[in-house]
Amino acid sequence: MWRPFFQPYHLIIVQDGDPSRTIKVPEGFDYELYNRNDINKILGPKASCISFKDSACRCFGYMVSKKKYIFTIDDDCFVAKDPSGKEINALEQHIKNLLSPSTPFFFNTLYDPYRDGADFVRGYPFSLREGVPTAVSHGLWLNIPDYDAPTQLVKPRERNTRYVDAVMTIPKGTLFPMCGMNLGFNRELIGPAMYFGLMGDGQPIGRYDDMWAGWCTKVICDHLGLGIKTGLPYIWHSKASNPFVNLKKEYKGIYWQEELIPFFQSATLSKDCTTVQKCYLELAKQVKAKLGKVDDYFNKLADAMVTWIEAWDELNPSGASTELANGSIK
User: Fold this and answer.
1) Across the chain, what does the average pLDDT equal?
2) Alpha-carbon distance 9 to 3, whole Å?
3) What keywords are assigned to this protein (predicted)?
4) pLDDT: which is higher, 285 or 16
């Protein structure tokens, strides 16, 4: 189903689990395939920051990519159809979202003013109509919604059939639950913040990898004057994961997030934080200082955040000092 949409592009496949298993990639694709042995070989001791047996391992692909735009997708996601029955080119819509500005400082009631058939409504300040660069495009899902385990257990048969033809900017100062299932981002603008944390094997928590990346990314985007859009495109999420397995992975996160959210809501970064890397390292310090007392896991996570940035800069030396001022790259 994805061949006509993915074949023109370069694929990075991050193999989770047993590295001795051979994954057969269909012919005709331009791709790189990495397993755990490859990650250990490339990163050495710093490979400790990449999760094992968890979807969080995908962020290794963000680190080794040389492309400006990244689209990340789960293995149980298929091509969705719009209400007219036409197959949705998710990648194309993500790129459209990323190429047009965001409006995080003032909400437009017609949603994305840069889409065909829309504009800024009466009362929208002209001084803000230029918008800011868009760093992240967060897509949605038809069929199986991205629910947590308690909601899955309460609503086992619920399916999302609503197709909402809208894209909107998430306002400055507002956090959101970022799902990595159908996600596009500008690697040059926000790549180093897209760390999916320590999850899965050997860790006390799972299924919060994309959430963690989303909270960190939103705080940094707000600080640097970048935008995040959510809405179109849709993909078809084909299967629901086991809610009992999910509950085992999530239950500590469900408690912890009641302290994590206020932490991110109140997090501020200094004026010296002019790059994504500097922002992320300062955030790591705050995680250790304020969340370390919640659980020792957050001390380990803070250390892993620093290791991630060190590894990113080693593999991407030319992009290590990209500065942003007033929403534009210096």
Assistant:
1) 95
2) 10
3) Cell wall biogenesis/degradation, Glycoprotein, Golgi apparatus, Isomerase
4) 285
Give 315's contacts (C-beta < 8 A, 6+ positions apart).
42, 63, 64
- Whose CA is closest to 233, among 55, 71, 119, 116? 71
Predicted confidence at residue 159, as pLDDT, reads: 97
Measured CA to CA in angstroms, residue 326 lies from 64, 172, 311, 329 at distances of 28, 15, 28, 9
For residues 114 and 131, give the distance between their C-alpha atoms in angstroms, rounded to a whole number. Answer: 10
**Is the pLDDT assigned to residue 327 strictly greater than 90?**
no
Q: Which residues contact 117 (CB under 8 A, 6 or more apart)?
A: none
Please, are residues 314 and 320 in contact by the beta-carbon 8 Å criterion? Answer: no
DSSP 33-74: EE-HHHHHHHHGGGGGGS-BSSGGGGHHHHHH---SEEEEE-
Give the angle subtended at the CA of 71 by the CAs of 209 and 287, to the nearest 5°. 30
Does this model's pTM top 0.85? My answer is yes
CA distance 295 to 298: 6
One-letter identity of residue 150: P
Q: How many CB atoms lie within 10 A of CB 315?
A: 17
